[in-house]
Design goal:
The protein contains four helices and no strands. The model has no long low-confidence stretch (mean pLDDT 87). Helix 2 packs across helix 3. The longest helix is centred in the C-terminal third of the chain and has 77 residues, at 67-143. 87% of the residues lie in helices and 0% in strands.
């Protein structure tokens, strides 16, 4: 059981957005089935109403007539907003993490290249300084 829990946690951490999309689809499917059975709407109308209610758009072209349907609609209305905000947050957070990871990797790569270039320039500077000293010594010897 412990191994299964560890695997599940790793799966959620790696595929957070996919896992969340699956949860949203499952919740929409449950709502669709509920409205299909309670309000006797077509499957498409039930799906449409559930999606519109969860996204808090609420066009009002389809409305539940039964008390049970109205209760479910209220539940989905209150649950939909946090669910979609949470999904948006996770999606943006994932994108921002990728961007930061890429920029940090690029920064470290460029810093390493700059360090290598600085070492190479120091070596070249030493060689140039030796040549300058040699030329200065030759000039001094010619003056004498």
């Amino acid at each position: 059981m412990h191994i299964l829990k560890l695997y599940f946690n790793k799966f959620i951490a790696k595929y957070t957005i996919l896992f969340f999309v699956i949860i949203i689809i499952f919740v929409i499917f449950i709502g669709t089935i509920a409205f299909y059975n309670i309000e006797w709407w077509s499957f498409f109308n039930s799906l449409y109403f559930t999606s519109v209610t969860m996204s808090t758009i609420g066009y009002g072209d389809i409305v539940p007539l039964t008390h049970a349907g109205k209760l479910i609609a209220m539940f989905y209305g209150f649950m939909g907003a946090p669910l979609f905000v949470w999904f948006t947050w996770i999606a943006f957070q994932s994108k921002i993490q990728k961007m930061l990871k890429t920029s940090i990797h690029t920064y470290h790569k460029e810093a390493k290249e700059a360090e290598d270039l600085a070492i190479q320039l120091r070596k070249e500077n030493k060689v140039q300084n030796k040549k300058i000293k040699k030329i200065e010594q030759e000039v001094e010897q010619e003056r004498k």
